[in-house]
Amino acid sequence: AILKNPTAASFKVKFPFIKISYKDIALGSSQVIDKDITIPAYGQVVIESMMVQINTISFVSAAYDVIKALNNKEPVRVVVQIITTIDLGWSKIPYENKMEVTLKK
Length: 105
Fold this sequence. Notes:
By secondary structure, the protein is of the alpha+beta class. It has one helix spanning 56-71, and strands at 2-5, 11-14, 17-22, 25-29, 36-39, 43-46, 53-54, 76-87, 92-103. Strand 8 (76-87) and strand 9 (92-103) form a beta hairpin. It is elongated, with a radius of gyration of 17 Å. Strands 2, 3, 4, 5, 7, 8 and 9 form a 7-stranded antiparallel beta sheet that branches. It has a two-stranded antiparallel sheet with strand order 1-6.
């Protein structure tokens, strides 16, 4: 992941928490890490060690639908949720973003 800061002020964010789901089935999530990441003014930071642990039981329950859809050349939509806190120094702002990722064969 690349975190970019196009502003003149540096700020911190908490290490992002990631959750992946398919049709309201939680497939996996990252660990909660209490670590601040400083993003410099007009700069960027690369996070290379983001790991999402996939729950085997949840994955197996969704695998049939996913494999069937991909074999039929149908798109599979997975929701990726990112949660963090932005620390501006004088204020901490919770941040959450959900995005849909489409898997295709």
